[in-house]
Amino acid sequence: MIGNVPIHLGDPKGSLLSVLKKQYKVEDRSAEFFVIDTLDSASVLGSVRFKQDQVVGATRQWGDVIAPSDALMSFFQNIYGAFDSASSEKQIGVLTCKTLRKPDGIYTMVLLDFGGRSADLYLERNIEGKQWLTVEESLLQQ
Hints:
Layout: H1 13-23, E1 25-28, E2 33-37, E3 44-51, E4 54-60, H2 70-86, E5 94-102, E6 105-113, E7 117-126, E8 131-139
Antiparallel strand pairs: 1-2, 2-3, 3-4, 5-6, 6-7, 7-8
C-alpha cells in the first residue's frame, strides 16, 4: 500500500498509475520505475517498479529524519555498532521480525543472527504508553 492505494504484484501499470495520479504526484524516473510523492512534493510516499506493464516491486516510505537529535543519532550509531560487530565474522545472516501483542503491552523485535552472533533491536510499549528501545549484541552457542 502506498498512501491509501493498495498495490499487488501483477497489478496492471495503466490502471494503477491512473489511480495513484488522482491522489498523488507520480514521477516517472524511467518507463518502468515511478516515484510517488504527496501532491505538494513535501514527502516521498514510495515507488513502484513495472516489467511488461505489470507491478514487479513496490516500496513504501515510512519517513525520514532530516536533522536527528544527538540522542537519536547516538541510538542509530548503537544499532550500527551492534550490527557491524555481530557481522564481523560472517556477513550473511538470518533476519527475524516479530510483533507480540500481550495484555501488558506490545513487543516488537528485529533479530539478526549471523550464526552464533546476533544483533537485536527491541521496542516495548506497555499499556500505560511508556516505551523502551533496546539494542543488544549476543554470542550464542551453536
